[in-house]
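Predict structure. Chain length: 247.
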Amino acid sequence: TNQDDETLYMLMEAVMGGELFGYLQERGRALSESHARFYAASVILALQYLHDRDLIYRDLKPENLLMDLQGYVKMADFGFVKKVKPGAKTYTLCGTPEYLAPEVIMNKGHNRSADWWGLGILLFELTSGSPPFAANDRLSMFKKICRRELTWPKHFSMAFKSLLDRLLEVSPTFRMGSGLTGADEIKSHPWFEGFDWVSFEARKMPAPYTPKAQAHPADTVNFGKRTVLNHVFKCTNLKPKEPFDNF
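Prediction complete.
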């Protein structure tokens, strides 16, 4: 962090590939399972990192996943992150309605299992084009979530459906990822058979989509107008020609 007489600055990584949400809107159609698998791997590793530190994320959605210029996604917006010790629960109602786990809606207390429910919702949306429990109003949607009333798209593979069936388990105790092995249980599921986790973590795996090249380091070409700030703060010591030099 830094500050001047008028402003407090927080320096963060510039992830200039745009939101996953924006890419999906521009694409206009659902992703293939292999395409979604690449993004799921990033999310799983990010959640595993948090959970290993007793932190739960609680706001997984395409809008909170940013792409770097190599096409890898990174998790953003940690406003709902909370430290929850093993065996404990938290009762705050927070998150995006379409992604809320049943135990959050019913105020039964939740832990890291709620994040794995969110992964199931994300994967369903990426590969079908809409969340699994969409409804005309929020109350109806919450009822569908708690009863797990969903229709499986016909194009889902058996392995993929098996994965989602385990992630979208109403009982957090039996939900995939909630056990002692955590994320490793998900990473070893047949849907990830043949996926090279070592290559992926080393960033040697080609991304299924690479964002547009930038004309200059501060180019926001990959962000829609909705996400670009109209007001730019004057940074006292920022060189205009090299804003991210040696970042």
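Summary: The beta strands are 2-3, 8-9, 55-56, 65-67, 73-75, 82-83.
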